[in-house]
Design brief:
The chain has helices at about 25-30, 70-80, 115-120, 125-140; strands at about 10-15, 40-45, 45-50, 60-65, 90, 100-105. With about 150 residues, it is an alpha+beta fold. The strands form two sheets. It has a three-stranded antiparallel β-sheet with strand order 1-2-3, covered by helices on one side. Strands 4-6-5 form a three-stranded antiparallel β-sheet, covered by helices on one side. A hairpin with an 8-residue loop joins strand 5 (about 90) and strand 6 (about 100-105). Helix 3 (about 115-120) packs antiparallel against helix 4.
Protein backbone atom coordinates (compact mmCIF):
# COMPACT_ATOMS: atom_id res chain seq x y z
CA UNK A 1 0.00 0.00 0.00
CA UNK A 2 1.28 3.46 -0.94
CA UNK A 3 0.93 6.11 1.73
CA UNK A 4 2.10 9.67 1.77
CA UNK A 5 2.88 11.78 4.78
CA UNK A 6 1.91 15.40 4.41
CA UNK A 7 1.98 18.25 6.85
CA UNK A 8 -1.38 19.42 8.19
CA UNK A 9 -2.98 22.22 6.19
CA UNK A 10 -1.66 25.60 7.22
CA UNK A 11 1.65 24.36 8.63
CA UNK A 12 4.71 26.17 7.32
CA UNK A 13 8.33 25.13 7.67
CA UNK A 14 11.59 26.95 7.12
CA UNK A 15 14.27 25.52 4.85
CA UNK A 16 17.68 26.75 3.66
CA UNK A 17 17.38 29.61 1.19
CA UNK A 18 19.07 27.63 -1.61
CA UNK A 19 16.12 25.18 -1.61
CA UNK A 20 13.62 27.88 -2.61
CA UNK A 21 12.20 27.58 -6.12
CA UNK A 22 12.94 31.25 -6.73
CA UNK A 23 16.45 31.44 -5.20
CA UNK A 24 18.24 31.73 -8.57
CA UNK A 25 15.73 34.36 -9.73
CA UNK A 26 16.67 36.64 -6.84
CA UNK A 27 20.40 35.81 -6.90
CA UNK A 28 20.62 36.98 -10.54
CA UNK A 29 18.53 40.13 -10.10
CA UNK A 30 19.48 41.66 -6.73
CA UNK A 31 21.90 44.58 -6.71
CA UNK A 32 23.54 43.08 -3.60
CA UNK A 33 23.17 39.27 -3.64
CA UNK A 34 25.04 39.16 -0.30
CA UNK A 35 21.68 39.92 1.35
CA UNK A 36 20.75 36.30 0.54
CA UNK A 37 23.00 35.16 3.40
CA UNK A 38 20.07 35.87 5.77
CA UNK A 39 17.33 34.75 3.34
CA UNK A 40 15.17 31.75 4.19
CA UNK A 41 12.86 29.47 2.23
CA UNK A 42 9.33 29.39 3.61
CA UNK A 43 7.72 26.07 2.70
CA UNK A 44 4.04 26.60 1.93
CA UNK A 45 2.30 23.29 1.22
CA UNK A 46 5.71 21.75 0.39
CA UNK A 47 6.60 24.60 -2.02
CA UNK A 48 9.68 26.49 -0.75
CA UNK A 49 9.51 30.21 -1.61
CA UNK A 50 12.23 32.71 -0.78
CA UNK A 51 11.83 35.37 1.88
CA UNK A 52 14.53 37.97 1.13
CA UNK A 53 15.53 40.17 4.08
CA UNK A 54 16.27 43.87 3.95
CA UNK A 55 19.87 44.95 3.56
CA UNK A 56 22.09 46.89 1.19
CA UNK A 57 19.82 48.80 -1.18
CA UNK A 58 16.84 46.50 -0.37
CA UNK A 59 14.55 48.46 1.96
CA UNK A 60 11.54 46.14 2.18
CA UNK A 61 10.07 42.81 1.19
CA UNK A 62 6.88 40.79 1.17
CA UNK A 63 5.34 37.35 0.63
CA UNK A 64 1.78 36.72 -0.58
CA UNK A 65 -0.66 34.15 0.81
CA UNK A 66 -4.12 33.18 -0.35
CA UNK A 67 -5.20 32.30 3.21
CA UNK A 68 -4.78 34.41 6.32
CA UNK A 69 -3.64 31.60 8.65
CA UNK A 70 -0.41 30.84 6.72
CA UNK A 71 0.29 34.58 6.55
CA UNK A 72 0.07 34.80 10.35
CA UNK A 73 2.27 31.72 10.70
CA UNK A 74 4.86 33.11 8.26
CA UNK A 75 4.97 36.41 10.13
CA UNK A 76 5.60 34.53 13.38
CA UNK A 77 8.36 32.39 11.85
CA UNK A 78 10.10 35.37 10.22
CA UNK A 79 9.96 37.36 13.47
CA UNK A 80 12.68 35.07 14.82
CA UNK A 81 15.04 35.76 11.89
CA UNK A 82 17.50 38.63 11.29
CA UNK A 83 16.71 41.01 8.43
CA UNK A 84 12.92 41.06 8.79
CA UNK A 85 12.16 44.23 10.80
CA UNK A 86 8.69 45.68 11.34
CA UNK A 87 6.80 42.54 10.25
CA UNK A 88 3.16 43.20 9.52
CA UNK A 89 0.25 41.60 7.72
CA UNK A 90 -1.76 43.41 5.07
CA UNK A 91 -5.09 41.63 5.30
CA UNK A 92 -7.22 41.62 2.18
CA UNK A 93 -11.01 41.74 2.57
CA UNK A 94 -11.37 40.71 -1.09
CA UNK A 95 -11.50 36.99 -1.86
CA UNK A 96 -9.54 37.36 -5.09
CA UNK A 97 -6.64 39.37 -3.62
CA UNK A 98 -3.89 37.78 -1.54
CA UNK A 99 -2.91 38.67 2.01
CA UNK A 100 0.69 39.81 2.33
CA UNK A 101 3.32 39.63 5.02
CA UNK A 102 5.53 42.70 4.69
CA UNK A 103 8.76 43.78 6.37
CA UNK A 104 11.08 46.75 6.35
CA UNK A 105 10.05 50.22 5.26
CA UNK A 106 6.60 50.80 3.78
CA UNK A 107 6.54 50.19 0.02
CA UNK A 108 6.28 53.14 -2.36
CA UNK A 109 2.81 54.38 -3.27
CA UNK A 110 0.99 52.24 -5.84
CA UNK A 111 1.20 54.92 -8.52
CA UNK A 112 5.00 54.97 -8.57
CA UNK A 113 6.69 53.49 -11.62
CA UNK A 114 8.48 50.14 -11.87
CA UNK A 115 11.92 51.75 -11.51
CA UNK A 116 11.02 53.14 -8.08
CA UNK A 117 9.68 49.74 -6.97
CA UNK A 118 12.70 47.91 -8.38
CA UNK A 119 15.12 50.12 -6.46
CA UNK A 120 13.05 49.83 -3.26
CA UNK A 121 13.19 46.02 -3.45
CA UNK A 122 16.93 46.11 -4.14
CA UNK A 123 17.06 44.94 -7.75
CA UNK A 124 20.05 45.81 -9.91
CA UNK A 125 19.75 48.57 -12.50
CA UNK A 126 20.20 45.95 -15.25
CA UNK A 127 17.35 43.81 -13.85
CA UNK A 128 15.08 46.86 -13.57
CA UNK A 129 15.85 47.97 -17.13
CA UNK A 130 15.16 44.45 -18.44
CA UNK A 131 11.85 44.27 -16.57
CA UNK A 132 10.72 47.69 -17.83
CA UNK A 133 11.72 46.79 -21.40
CA UNK A 134 9.74 43.51 -21.22
CA UNK A 135 6.70 45.31 -19.80
CA UNK A 136 6.76 47.86 -22.63
CA UNK A 137 6.95 45.09 -25.23
CA UNK A 138 3.93 43.33 -23.70
CA UNK A 139 1.80 46.46 -23.53
CA UNK A 140 -0.84 46.53 -26.28
CA UNK A 141 -0.58 49.45 -28.68
CA UNK A 142 -3.99 50.66 -27.50
CA UNK A 143 -2.48 51.22 -24.03
CA UNK A 144 0.00 53.76 -25.37
CA UNK A 145 -1.43 57.20 -24.80
CA UNK A 146 -1.00 59.74 -27.55
CA UNK A 147 -1.80 63.38 -27.25
CA UNK A 148 -4.33 64.71 -29.68
CA UNK A 149 -3.08 67.51 -31.91
CA UNK A 150 -6.28 69.35 -31.01
Amino acid sequence: MLTTATAPTGTLTLRPAEEAYDFAYFRHRLADPAVLADAIAVCVFRAPLLAVPVGGPRRGGYMSFDLLSPAVEARNLLAERPGFPDLRIRWSPCLDICHTVRWGQPAPAWWEDDVVFGRFYGYSEAAIASFVRNQQQRRPRSAVSRLSPM
